[in-house]
TOTE conflict systems S1/CSD-like domain-containing protein (Aliarcobacter cibarius), 775 residues
Amino acid sequence: MSEIEEYTTKKVFELRKNKQLSDAYKIASHLFKNDPNDEWTQKAYAWVLIDIIKIESTKNLELAKNFFNQLNSINFVTHDDILTKQIELLKPKLDSAYSHIQQAEQLSKNGKHQEALNIFQNIKQSGNLSINHHESYGWILYRYVKAFENTLTIDALKKILFEYLNLKNERPSLLHSMILQIAVHYASTHKDFDIFKFFQIWNPKYLQKDDIRKQYNEGKEFPSLLSRLLKVIINNQTPYDINYLIHEIKNENLIIESIRETFFWKIFQAHKDNQINFMWSVLNYYVNTYSNYGPSHWHSEILKLAERYMIEDNQWRFYEFIKNWNIQNFTNEDWREEINGEYTNKSLALKSLKKLFDIVRSSNKDQEDIGWIINLYQYALKKLENDIWLLREYAILLNKTNKIDEAIQIYKSIILELSDQAYAWHEFSNIIKNRNKYLSISMLCKAITIQPNEDFLGEIRLDLAELLLDSGQLNEGLVELTKYRNHREEKGWKITEKFHILFSKVSNIESSSLDNKTFYESSKSEAEEYILSNIPSTYVVLYETFKNKEGKERLIFTDFKNVEFVTNRKKSKSLVNAIKNDVFEVKLHYDNANKRYLVLKIEKSLHKIDEIINSAQEEIAIVDHINTQKKLFHYVINSRQDGVIHFDQTDLRPNIGDFIKIKYYSSNDKNSSKTKINILKVELTDKIDNSLLKDVSGELQVKHNSNGFFGFIKDYYIPENLLILNNIDKVCSAKANAKILFNGKKWVAYELNNVTLVENNQTLEEEEFDYLDDI
């Protein structure tokens, strides 16, 4: 082997791999001396030196230092992370205390923490603890605290932690985060340990990404180190500066959400442990301290707890709580329904509004006190269209703030959808009574007539009695009070103070009647007319009856245009004996939420069905087929609309190609998703729709195949029956005229005339035109 072949970097790496470090060093130093700036020479030389230093550091420290100086003399032309790290790892090994350091580390790992700590403290006191070993010392301190955490006093822990904090080890690092973690864990059971002050000294800027992320292990989720720190601060009621945390950590959302989550579980646990007074104090502290940091998931979750816990005797608390919570903090999610398995619950926002409504309705709060609630209702009504219950509550609150006219207008539309609900008439009467006492009485009479269950009439009867007495109708008022008292006594229910006050005004009167039924019937009409006065009448026909799944009869009404609704005979006395084709005058309200018409009033009309039919939809159609056996004919309006008319529906017997005028109305076919055409009236017409009928003339080409013979005029097919009618029985050419009509799918000839043969051709012979078999 030549000298050139032996003195190569490849040879150096080969010798190093075979542990022949002396020979490797000889070649590497020679190569480095000749070319100190060659990249591969530098690396080969460095790796040999590293291996030699590792060995000599345990035998001859001075010799190892000499080799390390050679290593430091290399001015690397490229950076190598692995090489650099190995060089850094050598530095502690060249320390005179290294053997003691190794001993201490081994003792610590073996659980002999006090002995390990003593060794490091001796090294430090002797002045031999270099910065290179600060990281090792830090781990010794960490393991010591972890081992003796349960027995360490706060002062003892502080001493060790400050010993660590004075080290110059790398930060941020795993060790630095572990020190914070052990401090947080210790503080969770030692409230007097000021974890916030320690965190400030530890320095928030040294938090690593993993310290602020949730952790996962074996499929389980664990809170981040930062979240645990904040939880301990909150639970220990340790004074802290939230603005400092936001400034230093630079993640306001994470900090606020961690704090809010901690309060959520604190409130939840207090309720679970039945520490109710403590729970109220925590809720109050939270809402007054952390509501100004904007909307968030956990802020809403805490409102859910408040809404759930502030009930019955504590419901009043919710008013101030949500006011401080700040209604501007509702998130989009808070307006969505809550899905819980197979159940769907109201959104948090709506549940909160309902609770506020119940509180305000029974309180004496004035207009200024509930202005913010009115604003919230206005926002909710924009966000949740067609919510009749929300609108109803809003109208009642407007009335409470003396915006009576606005409340009346709103409730006038509400009652159209709730006209069969006694409570709705009761509420409306309370709104309008300061404007029109007698109209209010009428509404209460209406409420009583539509509520068959006396259990729900108590408040209605008292309010009616109060108005009746106030208007001088003492006998009627006494009847209401008597019915109220008798039912309460029968049920064993408490009689209210309001009853006693009212009854004292008529206690000396003997009632001349046992009930007010006649009075109700005569009085309620004013309320009905008031509601219906601005609603136009619609004239409809009882078109059909059917029985639903429960076997109950239902009546279908239509105006033959765009109105159709279903009701039952109990809706009005006029429906009891109604029969098909009877005409009724009806007042309707369209319920947008449920996409249906609500019947407000329906009475028999003097109008005739023909008057209704004449206003129905009208179309011109062509008859394209007649089936005398089945006694029907088929008509076509266009490519989308066609139908069948049976002979028993009309006296008309048209011919194919006749145009007819039909009156009809459209409905959904129960057996399909298609639109059904219901014929009301049919008659012949002179009007012609050129899109359905054509006259064609020209050369008639007669052909034949296995199915018979046929012809064409231009591109229009002429069937065999029309050829036979014109005595054409052979393949030939002729001139002819044809009438063709559109049958909804294609053009079909139905009449052939003026046929003139242009040549005397062969008699009928079979030709193959099988491609026309399907025509």
The chain is about 50% helix and 15% strand. Residues 96-169 form one domain. The first helix runs from residue 3 to 6. The CA atoms of residues 323 and 372 lie 8 Å apart.
